[in-house]
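To: structure subgroup
Subject: Chain for Friday's discussion

All,

I'm putting the inputs and outputs inline so they're searchable in the archive.
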Amino acid sequence: MSKIRIERNTGWIGQLARIEIYIDSEKVGTINTIETQEYEVENGKHKIHAKFGWDNSQKIELNIVKNEIIVLKLTQYKYGTLILLMAFGLQLLYMLGKDTLNFDLKYYYILSAILILHPVYYWIKKKSLVLKEIDKKTF
């Protein structure tokens, strides 16, 4: 039999969440933050994806040969953390600028909307989880 190894590093967003792992549309387990899981599979073609609530990763089709370990990495949308920090910074700028510095913040709402809508677009398209193949080994 062969194995599929999944390594999770989804950052600090969703740390407490358990992400479900599906092989050939069947739930085979869950994976926690900074954890590695291995699943034994038969040789041949398999489709793998991860699911968290209503959010799915893309489906990866693997052709597994005898005595092979395929290593997959599960990560999050790469700009999620950066956008959250930028939104926090804009909010801080607004609070400081409005009262203390007397800035004219007429573009604040436009920037805030862009920062909020960008990750929402990816969550709606169900692309905040990313699953990719990083290595193949034989044993």
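Points worth raising on Friday:
Helices lie at 80-101, 108-124.
Strands lie at 2-8, 19-23, 26-31, 36-41, 44-52, 55-56, 60-64, 68-76, 129-138.

D.
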